[in-house]
Predict the structure.
Amino acid sequence: NLCLNGHTLKNAVRMFNNFGNLNFCDCHSADQEGTVVSSYKINETNDKNEFTSIVYCYYDSVTNLYGGNLKNTKTLDFCGLIAVSHDGGTANENKPSGVFNMYGGTIHGCNVLQGGGAITLWNNGTFNLYDGTILGGTAKYGGNINVTSGCTLNMYGGTIRDGIATEGNGGNIYGVGTVNIQGGTVTGGISTTAEA
């Protein structure tokens, strides 16, 4: 478990959750909200594009966000702050993928050259949004959330807003996988295909 207690964690490294449970929370006073700020960015010396700046929710794992701010102010190649997946490849195709549950807090998307300014789901990953806010991501497609084939986004509450798709597809959500919106508020573009 990681409780921010109203503090700011700067230059955070990526956290990998494999086969376990990871809980983020923030026990703070009303005027001091905790924040995780990632340092991951494009490596300017060798043009290596970095991705997934804060949490990689892998395999049969569950990550829960209850409070706090997650943000990255750098430019990444794809998958801004949260990735939900398994490791890919034929050997892993039947393994359970990760699940990310958001019950509160704020995920601030960053500038991403490909898809998913805040969150990318792939290899059967699932993201469940119950409350909280996802905002401000910019990407070629899926300014805030990129839902690839075989993956699922379930939205029961919360807010998704202020996403920008630079090529016009899904300012907030780009869904080739399943996009299931039963509650909450999405302000801006949603682009889905037949699988959604």
User: Anything to note?
Assistant: The chain has a mean pLDDT of 80. Residues 44 and 51 are 14 Å apart (CA to CA). The first strand starts at residue 2 and ends at 3.
